[in-house]
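User: Structure with calcium ion, tokens only please.
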Amino acid sequence: MTKKVFIVEDEPDLRDTLQYNFENEGFKVKSFPNGESFLETIKNDKPNLVILDLMLPGISGLDVCRNLRMNEDNENVAVVMLTAKSEEIDRIVGFELGADDYVTKPFSVRELILRVKVLLKKRSDDIDQNLLEFGPIAMNLDAHDVSVEGKNILLTALEFKLLKHLLKRKGRVQTRDQLLGDVWGYSSEVTTRTVDTHIKRLREKLGKPGELIQTIRGVGYRFNN
Ligand code: CA
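Assistant:
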């Protein structure tokens, strides 16, 4: 199936170069000069991956990424950030913003294409499997069951969703706010303390491997790999 790549870049020359090269590689491409037009389009038209410039006029690339990740419908959209600022990288990848990879400007288009292909391959493998694994923990999303060291454990629907969310994003920190939004759905009833309580219960049910869920003090949680 043809993969769809969206490009958000305000520099016209770079945008055209990327569009041309990705089309040449057989991708279906749409490009956008700003984050606003991109965010409007993805309401109805989702790409497999977006190449997102960090420095944009109007909404910054960081806010575009945050906005994208706030909506669970965009769960399968991979994000590669284009950045000139290397000091921002920790925040961009795996941290609060949830980009999957980044390339620092200036970069070679060949390198970017390679990274995109690797990322898309990895993503489609994960989606095909419907099986999420981490160490001794395995989740079968179709059968809706979870096992630890081969033994089934019983989780509530919410714990299942929480575990799925963390496993799908293993290695990336999920903030309490993100977890609230994605797992609970925003509601005034729940507070970030609710997240802590459920993580604690989930850890207990997982037993020893529950320790694989790391607490990032003051930020959130992650499966560290
Ligand atoms: Ca720019």
